[in-house]
Specification:
Length: 270
């Protein structure tokens, strides 16, 4: 197992923990006895979740508010975690957002902020704690990508590109860490019942999808933590999404891009 056993001196950090997959990752970890450090911008939601996890599972839960897209705020978080008295033996880089629309028409600062959060913050947090994990001979990182990482997506150009980076980076570092006792698991969920679409400006995007394509956040989180515990390189929840991930590796972009563009336009018009 890659994720070290739960212990009072250890903590697992979950970013973007206030809702969706992040909250469910936290519940899964707490149910397995892990102490947690929950990170997000919304303090009220974090406090509510922390109280739930303490009451139901008797684990120690710290709360840290942070705007991870801000480099100074991110540095303060890293310093606080290092000085917090508990070892960071697990890290779930879940915080992120997307945007839907034509790149030339979207607000540029929001698109740049998407890169800062989805890519820059994830790399810095991974780099801040993996060396310590290697030195101790154990630890696990879960980096949340997406099935969007397997192909360019017109209509979600920046989001898909950031998730492609996450997947490529994570799989490469996972290979580099072989034999150290430390692993990086890449989670690639498809459409999942979360607040993602509302934040992306697409309304209830998942409601526009066939129900068999939409994943349950609890199920996604369970598979993710199973993979993290086992040191699995990647986790793609759902049979259909696994097939999509596999087939996209072999479909040329000259065929894929027009199809993806038509699908994106259709979803945005509904």
């Amino acid at each position: 197992m890659s994720l070290p056993a739960a212990a009072p001196e250890n903590t697992v950090v979950v970013t973007g923990a206030s809702a969706g997959i992040g909250a469910e990752l936290s519940r899964q970890l707490a149910s397995r006895g892990h102490g947690l450090t929950l990170v997000a911008r919304r303090r009220e939601r974090l406090d509510e979740l922390a109280g739930e996890l303490r009451n139901e599972h008797g684990v120690e839960v710290d709360v840290r508010t942070c705007d991870l897209a801000d480099s100074d705020d991110r540095r303060r978080l890293i310093d606080a975690l290092r000085g917090g008295g508990r070892f960071v033996t697990g890290l779930c880089n879940n915080a992120g957002y997307g945007s839907v629309g034509t790149f030339s028409e979207l607000e540029l600062e929001r698109e740049v902020g998407e890169v800062r959060l989805n890519v820059e913050a994830l790399v810095e947090l991974t780099g801040a704690f993996v060396p310590d994990m290697v030195e101790r001979g154990g630890g696990a990182v879960l980096n949340v990508a997406s099935t969007a990482s397997f192909q360019p997506l017109p209509g979600m150009a920046v989001y898909a590109a950031t998730k492609a980076f996450v997947r490529s980076f994570s799989e490469a570092v996972h290979a580099e860490l072989a034999g150290t006792g430390v692993s990086i698991t890449t989670l690639c969920p498809g459409f999942t019942e979360t607040e993602f679409a509302e934040v992306a400006g697409a309304g209830s995007f998942e409601a526009k999808m066939p129900s068999f394509l939409v994943l349950n956040a609890t199920d996604v989180a369970r598979e993710a933590i199973d993979g993290m515990e086992q040191g699995t390189r990647s986790v793609v929840p759902g049979t259909i999404h696994k097939a999509h991930a596999f087939s996209s590796r072999f479909m040329p972009n000259t065929l894929l891009l027009p199809i993806a563009k038509r699908v994106a336009e259709d979803r945005l018009m509904r």
